[in-house]
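LAB NOTEBOOK - FOLDING QUEUE
OPERATOR: T.R.
BATCH SIZE: 2
PURPOSE: Compare the predicted structure-token outputs for two unrelated chains run back to back under identical settings.
PRIORITY: normal
REVIEWER: second-year student, initials M.K.

ITEM 1
FIELD SEQUENCE / FIELD STRUCTURE:
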Amino acid sequence: MSTVADFFNLKPIKMFPIYAIRGLTNYPYGQCFGREFTIFRKDVILVGRVPIDNNMIYWFCEQPYIPKDEGIWKNNEVIRQYTIELLSNYPQEIQEMAKYADINSLSFTQLSYRTPWDLLTGTFSRGSVTVAGDAMHIMGPFLGQGGSAALEDAVVLARNMAARCFKRRVGEAFHEFIRQRRMRVVRLSLQTYLIGMLLGSCSCLKKIWIILLKLLFPNQRSHMNYDCGDL
């Protein structure tokens, strides 16, 4: 727990029963995947691909797995070979993402999150102190919205500070920032939480998570139809 988290008495973040391999792959002659965030799922393995520019893509591979010897996952070549093996039944373009990934970009980590109910009830601003981004709403990468939510935070925070700070009302600006952002990040967190539980649960519980997802988020892409406003 950080000093700021202690100041707000925030509850510790939780860990998904999921481990993620992440990396960057450069295509010198240009990537052919366009600009769309794409997800592929087969059995218990989820693969995501996010184009960064015309040449670079960010990708992740997730699975419910507990490594026996965590030390070996600090070796990036081991991570690469393991990922190539893991994706052997996927299309060639997916396998090549791992095969030609920048070796220094690879990581193998357990995914963490702040629970939606902690976001709903927690205190995230007090006086002239507040939190934003992952410090407030760390979530699984299943929707590809973690970075976007942090950028939204920046816009809303800057807008509130501009409107109030010249009057020396910093605390009021921070309080209003949290008020405006809370339900947006609660919904994102809840959707990623349900997807994470679905991916990491045993088969007997999967139906529960599927039902909850369909009830609460009938439009699985509704999180993208959001405008945080102008700066």
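ITEM 2
FIELD SEQUENCE / FIELD STRUCTURE:
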Amino acid sequence: MIRLEISVEAMKKEIEESQNLVTTTLSNLQTERSTWEKTLLTMKDASITALDTAIQETKTQVQEELNVLAAEKERWNKELKECVKMPEVVLFSARRPKHNTLTSGQTVIFTEIILNKGEAYNKENGVFTAPYTGAYTFTVQFCVYPGKNVDFAFMANDTPFKITRIHRHSSGYFACRSFDAMTIVNKNEIVKIKIVSCSSEIILSESNTHHWNTFSGRFIQAI
């Protein structure tokens, strides 16, 4: 009877130890499971964040490239329109030189606009700026006092394309003479009238009603 009780006590103890071991093992498994769940959730959140960041960066890069392409397209369209645009009418006429006394090397500035279709002539500096590449014709008229002489040049980008002289020997009244010149001018090149040499004192005569000193020009044809 005593032995039986001892055996039962031993079995009971083994069962309790087994239960404790099972409980401990289950608790450890539960803890490990919770740790893995947290780790997996953290990895999932990090992956989603990294993916979102990569997507946003890609979208930004694609948008920047699209903006560059759009700007390039706009530039090409503008250049194409400029290439195919038909030249407009360009002609000007101006009078009244700023100075009646001339000096060598001086640009003659005609200060009063008669006509300026295309706004290519600048009355502030006496310069015509070609809006198109092509053939142009220019005319200048000077009314010179007797005994005076003027050598002047039609200049395109500071290069003379025609040099002309007015020489008055007579002792009579003034005389007005006009001169023409034709040349090829590139877009944005300038044309002006430059004094090469001249007499001293007052040379040019100007009248509101009878005679004018004038400078005019017009665009003939694109080339």
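REVIEWER COMMENT (ITEM 2): Residues 17 and 23 are 10 Å apart (CA to CA).
FOLLOW-UP: none requested
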